[in-house]
Amino acid sequence: MDPATQGRLVVISGPSGAGKTSVCRALKQDPRVQFSVSATTRAMRTGEQHGVDYWFLSADDFAAREARGEFLESASYNGRRYGTLRAPMETALRQGKIFVLEIEVQGTRQLRARGVPGTYVFVVPPNLAELRARLERRGSDSPAEIEARLRIAEAELAACELYDHVVENHVLERTIAEVRRILGL
Fold first, then answer.
1. How far apart are CA 40 and CA 75, in angstroms?
2. What's this model's pTM, rounded to 2 decimal places?
3. Is 28 helix (H, G, I), strand (E, B) or coil?
C-alpha cells in the first residue's frame, strides 16, 4: 500500500460523560473520517439503531466472534462487553480514511501493548463534580450506575499516560476544535 494514501487510526477515549461521543459525532461529519461502530452486549438505549450506534450482540455471539479473532480489541466495562471489529478498520485504512475508534481505556491498553500505530486522544472532564452533573443530566443511568461510572472514571483518569493528547472538555465546541486541530482536519 502506498503510504501517502494509507489512512490512519485515531483512538478517542475518556470517562463516561466526558464528551468523547459528542466529539466523535462531530468528527464523523468530515468525509475523510470513518467512524468505528463498536460491538456491545449492553441493551439498546432509546433512539439507538443496530449497526449505526453499535452492533448489539448477545453475549454468546460476542464470545464466538472474539474466539475467531474478529476483534481488534475488546473490553469489559461496567458488566458489559465492548469490542472493535477488525475488518471495517482495515478497509477504511486501505481507502485512505481516518478511522476513528471510540474505546474504553482497557481497549487502549490492548492496542498500545500490541504496538498498534495511531493517534491516541483522551477527552477528560474539568473535574469529577462536573462529570457527575453530566451523567445525571443525561438521565439514562440509575443512581447506582452513576456511582459505578464515577468510580471507573477515577481509575481511567489515572491512565492519561497511554495517550498522545489529553483534551479537557470545558466547552464542547472548543474541545471539538482542539481535537480537529490535533488531527489536522
1. 10
2. 0.82
3. coil
